[in-house]
């Protein structure tokens, strides 16, 4: 069975999601995005992140962060 998992660094997953890298780091600090630590670097499994987005968890974060910037 072939392993079709695509592992991405912060910059690539930010581009994939259409957000800034700083947003990814904020989500990481709060433990809100699925990620894996490899040494000192974060790596993201694209299929896990896509499933996370489809579950609606990412949209909840987007609405919360837009409320934080307005206040």
Keywords:
single chain, 71 residues, alpha+beta, 3-stranded antiparallel sheet, 4 helices, 3 strands, disordered C terminus
Overall 3D form: globular
Looking at the chains present, what oligomeric state does this protein adopt? single chain
How are the strands of the biggest sheet laid out side by side? Answer: 1-3-2
| Total E-strand runs | 3
- Give the SSE string: EHHEEHH
- Average pLDDT reading: 84
By DSSP (H or I, 4+ residues per run), the number of helices equals 4
Q: How much helix is in the residues?
A: 55-70%
Strand content: 5-15%
Low-confidence stretches: 66-71
Mind describing the biggest β-sheet? 3 strands, antiparallel
Structural class: alpha+beta
How far apart lie the N and C ends?
51 Å
Radius of gyration: 13 Å
Structure description:
It contains 4 helices and 3 strands, in the order E-H-H-E-E-H-H. With 71 residues, it is α+β, with helices and mostly antiparallel strands. Strands 1-3-2 form a 3-stranded antiparallel sheet. Strand 2 and strand 3 form a beta hairpin. The C terminus is likely disordered.
Draw up the topology in text.
Elements: E1 7-8, H1 10-17, H2 21-29, E2 36-38, E3 41-45, H3 46-54, H4 57-70
Antiparallel strand pairs: 1-3, 2-3
Helix pairs in contact: 1-2
Provide a concise account of the structure shown.
This protein has 71 residues and is an alpha+beta fold. The protein is built from 4 helices and 3 strands; from the N terminus they run βααββαα. Strand 2 and strand 3 form a beta hairpin.
């Amino acid at each position: 069975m072939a392993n079709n998992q695509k592992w991405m660094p912060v910059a690539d997953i930010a581009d994939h999601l259409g957000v800034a890298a700083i947003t990814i780091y904020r989500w990481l600090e709060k433990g809100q995005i699925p990620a894996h630590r490899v040494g000192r670097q974060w790596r993201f499994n694209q299929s896990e992140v896509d499933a996370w987005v489809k579950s609606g968890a990412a949209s909840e974060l987007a609405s919360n962060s837009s409320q934080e910037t307005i206040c």
